[in-house]
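User: For documentation purposes, I need each entry recorded in a consistent format: the amino acid sequence on its own, followed directly by the corresponding structure tokens. There are two entries in this batch. Please keep commentary to a minimum and don't merge the entries.

Assistant: Recorded as requested. Entry 1:
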Amino acid sequence: MTEARPTARMEWRRYGALPIAAALGYSTSVIHIYGLSPYIEPIQEAFNWSRAQATSGLTVATVINAVFCLFIGMLVDRVGPRRVGLIGVLLTTGAFALLGTATGDKGNWYLLWGVMAFATLPVQATIWTSAVASRFETSRGMALAVTLSGASLAATVFPILATWLIVTYGWRTAFAAEGLIWAAITFPMLFLFFRGARDGERKNSVEETAPAPVELTGISISDGLRSSVFWRLFLASVLFTFTIIALVVHFIPILRNAGTDHLAAAGVASMVGIFSIVGRLGTGFLLDHFKASRVGAAIFVLPIIACALLLTVGSNSVAQFTAAIVIGLTLGSEIDVIVYLTTRHFGMKNFGTLYGGLLTALSIGTAFGPLAAAAVYDATGVYTNFLILTMLFMAISSLSLLSLPHRGYEG
């Protein structure tokens, strides 16, 4: 006799703290991405660097991430996400603090970002999403949305926190303080509440009476990598992150170029984070009730509106806030859509490995998007051409999702 599928209420009553803890873990994984924007100008001024040089370290880090994403996914499938994530949070926040020791030598800068790259391997999205997806079935879309809201939290908090720390203590101390603060917040929550199905159950009166988790099912790694669905998701992922992460990293400089002062620009940029929470939770609801590929395709065209506003009336404060809101709504949904589609088309048995492959695409886009935007600015003095390129890439990414088949994996 087949075991009854748990209701959403049952899943949240039993594992409700897990997505919240995972969200904090995921926020740590992007501290060097969403937290970089306020540091760009101070680093430029300190070392007399171009904007591309100031952001080149992020490219180094994410290229290294792209190479090892698949292997981290395989590690998670083998040993479970808990041990990997706990170690990763401490390594990542420590490596972020070390960025404040930069000397101005380019070799030193790349070395520090190389350390950052390897430190962030154990906090990739695969770790947090695999744990949550293994515990939630009926309410998987909303649970993943809560988890991935960690990036929204990061996009909201890090620009303001970093800007305040830089103005108050200087950029070197700000790196160390920001890393320490986030480690102190995140690690205790993960230690107490972060456990996926592969990590086993805690021994308490509630869990001892709970049924053992069902065996995870899904297609083989080779079948997944040969699937055209995988490569359409890969294309959508790389084009999306190439453009949207560049917009987030350069959003404060874009506003500064339009004449907005530092703190005002940071305030506008915080809207990206706030509305990315709205976007993630809204997307989670939509994914649980509507066809995921259509939801994703609709959301992926939203940055076109933001770019159009920045290109035409970018100095207007209302237009700036509207652009931040639209970017936030999209930023709050892209990984949710890719993760959800991965689980539905490929199952959970080899989720870590297959999503790790797609995370390679996300890392490639993250590596070269901000650098490309910086190079465009250094060459022209404006971001106009990159904003136009963003509009084109978003349209292609949306069409890639729209082309996915209606039916996914049935295990």
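Entry 2:
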Amino acid sequence: MALSKDQIAQRIAKEVKSGYYVNLGIGIPTLVANFVRNDIEVEFQSENGVLGMGPFPFEGEEDPDLINAGKQTITALPGASFFDSATSFSMIRGQHVDLTILGAMEVAQNGDIANWKIPGKMVKGMGGAMDLVASAENIIVAMMHTNKAGQSKLLKECSLPLTGVNCVKKVVTNLAVLSIENNSFKLLERAPGVSIEDIKIATEGDLILEGDIPEMQF
């Protein structure tokens, strides 16, 4: 069975290690903070100038002055700090972020990512994604495996305007966990109940299959 957005975030949370500074992009990545283990220390950074984000607030406990880069209300953990965009992007460009988790519209088998613009549609701007992909050494993408028309979003080459080139290390979708290796998608795990054949059909890019492919564990 394909994963929900929450389950994608829950699986990605397993990639977060104690001591990491982590930037969460807009969309599914913002959910990751809800699933990080309580026994590890992690600092979540938001490019609008927050370090020390916690989970989303419960309904009725929102503070409209506390938001992330996607304008969603957030919580702040004890010791959290707030600063201007210049300082925030100094952290990003200075490679002080250990893990960047982004959403995407397309990912190519060489690690290219397109996540900021669909030609002909209005956008507010590219945001901080281009700085993040240019500076980060560890990028995980959270996305749906196919679009609403059932077409693959894991491609041989991106068709949309690129955000970054050769930068994605791993992709977690509603169907699978894949790494980018040897100019291909290497299948590491599959969603519970999803067959390898299902994933092959949903993946336009070249797919590496080695050994037994286990189901995801949460």
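Summary note for entry 2:
Residues 175 and 191 are 5 Å apart (CA to CA).
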